[in-house]
C-alpha cells in the first residue's frame, strides 16, 4: 500500500487549517509514518502537483488521501478519520478481560504502584479495552487520552455535561474530540429531575445549602449511567490535588461507591503519584491541548458558578466550592475520598 496525502498550501505559504489538523491527528495517533509522500496543491497554481491530482480524482478540497494498492487500484479518502479507520487501523488486540469481582485488587495495586502512568493505563486497557472508560474533564484527563491514543489499545471516553460549564470548556471538549479523533460520550442530566430541581430551588441553591443536591442531579446520576456500561473507569486524580481528600488514593482500587456493567467496578488513578508539575511538564513536552482557562488563573476547573481563579500560593482546589469546608469539596464523583465506605 502506498499513501499520498495531498495538502493545500495557501497563498501566504502556510498549509490550510484543515490540512494542519489532519497532520496533527495522524501524529497524535502515531500514524504519521504511514504517509509515504505529501504533495502540495498550491492555492493559486492549478498546475501544482496536488492540484493536478485533485483534478484527476475529481476532488476539490484538501486534505485528501490517495491509497494505491499492490495491484495499482487507487482509492481516494476525503476524510482523515475514514482513511485512518479503513486503512490504518490494526486488528483489535485480544482483550484479556478479567472479572472485576474476582480480581485481587490489592495484588494488582502492589504490582502497578510506582510504575509510569502509561503502564498503569496499559494494564487497564489490556484487560478491559473499550469497557475501560476515561472520565474526561480536566488537563489530567487529556494526558490520559493522549497516553491511551499512543498505546493503540481500545478505550472509551465520557464526559459529564452539567449544563453549567464554561463556554471555554465546551469548546475544549470539541477540540479534544477532533485532536485525537476519539468519540466522547457526553452525558447530560435527567431533564425531568433537573427541571423539577431548578423549579423548586432556582439556579444557585448550592451557595445556600451546599453543592450536594445540584451535583447529585447534574453530575452523579449521569456518572452512574456512564459507569453502568463499563467494567473500569480511569480518573485523573492526583494525591497532591487535595491534602484533605486525595492524599491517600491508590493507583487502582475497587470502586466502593458506583457499580459497573457486571456489578463490581474498578477505578484506576494512573496519575495518583504525579505532581502538578509532572503533569504540566508532560503537557508541554507532548504539546497536549488544554483548557484556555488555565492561562487565566483557573487550576482545577469544574462548573462555572462553582469554580474561580486562584491567587498565587493558594492550593489548587481552593478555587472549587470555596464557600464550603475544605473536607467537603468533592463533587460526588469521588465521594469515597470524603465519606468512609458503607461496605
Ligand atoms: S459544580 Fe456547582 S453547578 Fe456544577 S453540578 Fe455541582 S453544584 Fe451544580
Structure, described:
This protein has 343 residues and is α/β, with parallel strands linked by helices. The chain folds into 2 domains: 2-88, 3-Layer(aba) Sandwich (Glutaredoxin), CATH 3.40.30; 105-337, 3-Layer(aba) Sandwich (Rossmann fold). It is built from 11 helices and 10 strands. The protein has helices at 17-28, 49-57, 80-88, 105-112, 117-128, 139-151, 167-180, 191-201, 206-209, 212-227, 276-286; strands spanning 2-9, 37-42, 64-68, 74-77, 132-135, 156-160, 184-187, 232-234, 252-254, 266-268. A 6-stranded mixed sheet has the order 7-6-5-8-10-9. Helix 6 (139-151) links the parallel strand 5 (132-135) and strand 6. Helix 5 crosses helix 6. It is globular. It starts with a strand and ends in a 57-residue tail after the last helix. Bound molecules: iron/sulfur cluster (SF4). Iron/sulfur cluster binds at residues 162, 164, 206, 211, 214-215, 218-219, 302-303, 305-306, 331.
Amino acid at each position: 500500500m502506498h499513501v499520498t496525502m495531498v495538502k493545500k498550501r495557501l497563498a501566504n505559504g502556510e498549509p490550510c487549517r484543515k490540512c494542519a489538523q489532519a497532520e496533527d491527528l495522524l501524529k497524535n495517533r502515531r500514524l504519521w509514518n504511514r504517509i509515504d509522500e505529501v504533495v502540495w496543491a498550491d492555492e493559486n497554481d492549478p498546475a501544482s502537483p496536488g492540484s493536478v491530482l485533485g483534478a484527476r480524482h475529481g476532488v476539490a478540497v484538501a486534505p485528501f488521501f490517495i491509497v494505491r494498492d499492490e495491484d495499482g487500484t487507487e482509492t481516494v479518502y476525503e476524510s482523515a478519520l475514514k482513511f485512518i479507520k479503513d486503512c490504518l487501523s490494526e486488528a483489535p488486540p485480544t482483550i484479556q478481560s478479567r472479572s472485576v469481582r474476582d480480581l485481587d485488587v490489592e495484588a494488582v495495586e502492589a504490582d502497578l504502584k510506582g510504575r509510569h502512568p502509561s503502564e498503569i493505563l496499559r494494564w487497564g486497557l489490556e484487560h478491559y479495552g473499550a469497557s475501560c472508560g476515561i472520565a474526561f474533564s480536566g488537563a489530567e484527563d487529556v494526558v490520559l487520552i493522549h497516553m491511551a491514543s499512543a498505546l493503540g489499545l481500545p478505550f472509551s471516553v465520557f464526559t459529564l455535561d452539567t449544563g453549567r460549564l464554561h463556554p471555554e470548556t465546551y469548546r475544549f471538549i470539541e477540540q479534544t474530540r477532533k485532536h485525537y479523533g476519539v468519540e466522547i460520550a457526553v452525558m447530560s442530566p435527567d431533564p425531568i429531575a433537573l427541571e423539577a430541581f431548578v423549579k423548586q430551588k432556582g439556579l444557585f441553591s448550592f451557595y445556600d445549602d451546599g453543592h450536594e443536591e445540584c451535583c447529585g442531579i447534574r453530575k452523579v446520576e449521569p456518572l452512574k449511567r456512564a459507569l453502568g456500561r463499563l467494567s473500569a473507569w480511569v480518573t485523573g486524580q492526583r494525591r497532591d490535588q487535595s491534602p484533605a481528600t486525595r492524599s491517600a488514593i491508590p493507583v487502582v482500587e475497587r470502586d466502593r461507591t458506583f457499580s459497573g456493567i457486571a456489578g463490581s467496578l474498578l477505578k484506576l488513578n494512573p496519575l495518583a503519584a504525579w505532581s502538578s508539575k509532572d503533569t504540566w511538564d508532560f503537557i508541554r513536552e507532548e504539546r497536549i491541548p488544554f483548557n484556555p482557562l488555565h492561562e487565566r488563573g483557573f487550576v482545577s476547573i469544574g462548573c462555572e458558578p462553582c469554580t474561580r481563579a486562584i491567587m498565587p500560593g493558594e492550593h489548587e482546589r481552593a478555587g472549587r466550592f470555596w464557600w464550603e469546608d475544605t473536607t467537603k469539596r468533592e463533587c460526588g464523583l469521588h465521594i469515597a475520598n470524603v465519606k468512609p465506605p458503607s461496605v
